From TrEMBL:
<keyword id="KW-0347">Helicase</keyword>
<protein>
    <recommendedName>
        <fullName>DNA 3'-5' helicase</fullName>
        <ecNumber>5.6.2.4</ecNumber>
    </recommendedName>
</protein>
<dbReference type="Pfam" id="PF13361">
    <property type="entry name" value="UvrD_C"/>
</dbReference>
<dbReference type="InterPro" id="IPR014017">
    <property type="entry name" value="DNA_helicase_UvrD-like_C"/>
</dbReference>
<keyword id="KW-0067">ATP-binding</keyword>
<keyword id="KW-0547">Nucleotide-binding</keyword>
<dbReference type="InterPro" id="IPR027417">
    <property type="entry name" value="P-loop_NTPase"/>
</dbReference>
<feature type="binding site">
    <location>
        <begin position="38"/>
        <end position="45"/>
    </location>
    <ligand>
        <name>ATP</name>
    </ligand>
</feature>
<dbReference type="InterPro" id="IPR014016">
    <property type="entry name" value="UvrD-like_ATP-bd"/>
</dbReference>
<feature type="domain" description="UvrD-like helicase C-terminal">
    <location>
        <begin position="311"/>
        <end position="574"/>
    </location>
</feature>
<keyword id="KW-0378">Hydrolase</keyword>
<dbReference type="Pfam" id="PF00580">
    <property type="entry name" value="UvrD-helicase"/>
</dbReference>
<dbReference type="InterPro" id="IPR000212">
    <property type="entry name" value="DNA_helicase_UvrD/REP"/>
</dbReference>
<keyword id="KW-0413">Isomerase</keyword>
<comment type="similarity">
    <text>Belongs to the helicase family. UvrD subfamily.</text>
</comment>
<feature type="domain" description="UvrD-like helicase ATP-binding">
    <location>
        <begin position="17"/>
        <end position="310"/>
    </location>
</feature>
<dbReference type="GO" id="GO:0004386">
    <property type="term" value="F:helicase activity"/>
</dbReference>
Length: 693
């Protein structure tokens, strides 16, 4: 029956309802902040959505609700859930448009919008562009090189490490010495040089009118230290709600506190046992400190019933988190009985693992479980390589989330650099990239021209009038004409992306053998651009919340097709599937070999496994390949290494898993330490995950 339930709020349990209705009878000025701390699958996000719906039904203006989520996808999921509740209550048809929540998104995306609004008041150039992680690294690398640091000392931290150190200091508000001591002890000897490098990095960004990701939070927090701006910005919103609060950092807590000093109408939800972003400076302390963050004390609501998973799945997940060094006081229970325990599957190697998982997925589908209700999760994007091959071979459609992003491919970055240079002629990293796309133009010429452009009243003129060397004169002219068209386009956006595309496509053919496939991406991007109101909006959105998979770009009906989800655990946060497979539940993968620095890192890896396991509703399979193949040029050629079951699945937990399988687990043998040479290979492979194509 399609009988719409009259009162969606009646489905909530007592604690959920009390959180939804918290202070709803009081005038805003008397409300207190609300914190919901609860375990996985207890309905935190669902409760938040009901609270937003209730606020709107009670008359709140959706345009004055600030809803902070972890990703763009989470924001749109939330919007959908809110819409559903409202439609049910109002008796509207399921096709009725949901209310728009224009201020829902990530902290970074919302920060970018507010900074544009207040740019003039805080001395930011209005044409600022946002630099992605890759460009930030490159800028760091360039300055590092200019300071001669790489030349004098070969061991000086790489550009990516430099950016990590800088970013951690910014996001945690710790000073450099402290950050080095606790997180990068091997870099301590370079504290003075790093300090100098970072101050140059900050100056360079300012000079070039670019902000990096961290700046979006930093400038936002800092602009709020001005009382008048804080009041203006805070008063734009009647309600502020934050999901996944355990993964926010110091700066984000500061922002909340400054936007709403008394905490009235602020709601945060989170789970300390699921904190998995401390490597980016997030801190569970935020949850612990929330009750005292504002001038008014917060009310804390806890939820204990898990509505997602069957009892056996929950029991196994609880067993994994129960052995964490820090205590998570949760009494999660579920009334979804099931006789099926999760499986711990031992398999000879990764190829067999891929085959077995593909078989299971198809078997589940036979039993009526769509591909969309199933997911395969893994610690690192590279771990799914063998499975992807198998899925392609067997024609099983899938979409992969996390890991390499569409925007990181060279040709997409090339095209965007053209748009960025048109938007902000002072931006060096985009400028370097764009100008060197002109055949025959190298770094020296690019630098000279960029210096001229930055100082010129009309940078397009500079390009048109530049006396390029005779051998590149024609190419130069074509580029300058395109640039002038982009800068001066009389027609509205997206004329300029079309101009950029038309100029770039021939370069692409010259540059790549697989130009056809790349050209299709470019066409897709240009088509997508039409959906944005302006060049600025397009660039900002794309940089801040890049699509997580290339399928985010594909038009329906592809989206409507049934497909399996492949995802890193990080990207699977907050979601659920009827069936979940977790790949490579072995030491070196979970916990990752990259993260065996200290106990805190290991604890975070344990929470990651907990997050992965708690995504499952009915079926959970942890797969343990006994061997990895290392496809790498070694004197021995391709080789394999022995693997051991993840240390997080201790013998004491085995009774939580299906009998037949844990027997073979015991034959897995004694734990032998992984030889150092093998660790190196595994690490090497993980490192390649970040290589840009
Ligand atoms: P996570 O910690 O993984 O983010 P969560 O606490 O946010 O989980 P939700 O995603 O909100 O949990 O809810 C988990 C599942 O439980 C969803 O399918 C949701 O619809 C369902 N659920 C939540 N509350 C109830 C309820 N009172 N009755 C029935 N189902 C519920
Ligand atoms: Mg949630």
């Amino acid at each position: 029956g399609e009988v719409a339930e009259a009162d969606p709020f009646a489905r909530l349990n007592a604690e959920q309802r009390s959180a939804v209705e918290h202070d709803s009878k009081l005038p805003a000025a008397q409300q207190s902040p609300l914190l919901i701390v609860a375990g996985a699958g207890s309905g935190k996000t669902n409760t938040l959505a009901h609270r937003v719906a209730k606020l709107i039904l009670d008359g709140a203006d959706p345009h004055r609700i600030l809803l902070l989520t972890f990703s763009r996808r989470a924001a749109s999921d939330m919007g959908r859930r809110v819409g559903q509740v409202i439609r049910q209550v109002m008796g509207l048809s399921p096709s009725a448009a949901p209310p728009e929540l224009p201020w829902s998104g990530t902290f970074h995306a919302i920060g970018a919008r507010l900074l544009r609004d207040y740019a003039a008041q805080i001395g930011l150039e209005e044409d600022f562009t946002i630099q992605d992680r890759g460009d930030s690294e490159d800028l760091m690398g360039l300055l590092r090189h200019e300071m001669g640091l790489s030349a004098t000392d070969k061991r000086f931290p790489l550009k990516a490490t430099c950016l990590n150190i800088y970013s951690r200091a910014v996001n945690t508000r710790e000073d450099l010495g402290q950050v080095l001591q606790t997180h990068f002890p091997w870099c301590r000897e370079w504290e003075a040089q790093l300090a100098e490098l970072f101050s140059r990095y900050v100056d360079a960004k300012e000079e070039q009118h670019v902000l990096d990701y961290d700046d979006l939070l930093l400038f936002w927090a800092d602009m709020l230290s001005d009382e008048e701006i804080a009041r203006l910005a805070g008063e734009r919103f009647d309600h502020v709600l934050v999901d996944e609060y355990q993964d926010t950092n110091r700066l984000q807590a500061e922002i909340l506190q400054r936007m709403k000093p008394d905490g009235a109408c602020v709601t945060a939800v989170g789970d300390d046992a699921q904190s998995i972003y401390s490597f980016r400076g997030a801190t569970v302390r935020n949850i612990l400190d929330f009750p005292a963050l504002f001038s008014r004390p917060a009310r804390v609501v806890t939820l204990e019933q898990n509505y997602r998973s069957t009892q056996p799945i929950l029991a196994a997940s609880n067993a994994v988190i129960a052995e964490a060094p820090e205590r998570h006081h949760k009494n999660l229970w579920s009334d979804k009985a099931s006789s099926q325990k999760p499986q711990l599957v031992l398999i000879p190697d990764e190829v067999e693992q891929a085959r077995w998982v593909a078989n299971r997925v198809l078997a589940h589908r036979e039993q009526g479980m769509t591909l969309k209700s199933q997911a395969v999760l893994f610690r690192t994007a590279t771990h799914s390589a063998a499975l992807e091959l198998e899925l392609v071979r067997r024609n099983i459609p899938f979409v992969k989330f996390g890991g390499l992003k569409f925007l990181e491919s060279t040709h997409i970055k090339d095209l965007l650099s053209l748009l960025r240079l048109a938007h902000n002629p002072s931006g060096r990293m985009a400028g370097f990239r764009a100008l060197q796309l002109i055949p025959g133009v190298g770094p020296a010429t690019a630098k000279k021209v960029l210096d001229l452009m930055a100082a010129a009243p009309d940078p397009a003129d500079t390009l048109l009038n530049f006396a390029a060397p005779a051998n590149v004169a024609l190419e130069w002219q074509a580029f300058a004409d395109t640039y002038a068209l982009m800068r001066r386009a009389a027609e509205p956006w997206p004329t300029d992306i079309n101009a950029a595309r038309d100029w770039y496509l021939p370069q692409l053919e010259r540059k790549y053998e697989d130009a056809t496939a790349r050209a299709a991406d470019i066409e897709q991007l240009a088509a997508l651009a039409g959906g944005y109101a302006s060049r600025e909006k397009f660039l900002t959105e794309l940089t801040l919340d890049p699509p997580e998979s290339s399928s985010d770009y594909s038009a329906p009906p592809y989206r409507d097709e049934d497909y399996l989800t492949l995802s890193t655990i990080h990207s699977a946060k907050g979601q659920e599937w009827r069936s979940v497979h977790v790949l490579n539940v072995v030491d070196g993968c979970i916990p990752s070999d990259l993260a065996t620095g200290n106990e805190a890192e290991i604890a975070e890896e344990r929470r990651l496994l907990y997050v992965a396991m708690t995504r499952a509703r009915e079926h959970l399979h942890l797969v343990v390949p006994q061997r990895f193949y290392i496809t790498q040029q070694t004197p021995q050629g391709d080789r394999h290494v022995n693997a051991i079951r993840s240390r997080f699945v201790t013998p004491r937990m085995l009774p939580h898993f299906e009998d037949s399988l844990w027997l073979s687990a015991e034959t897995n043998g004694a734990r032998t330490p992984v030889p150092e040479s093998v660790k190196m290979l595994v690490r090497q492979r993980a490192k390649n995950a970040w290589k840009k194509s």
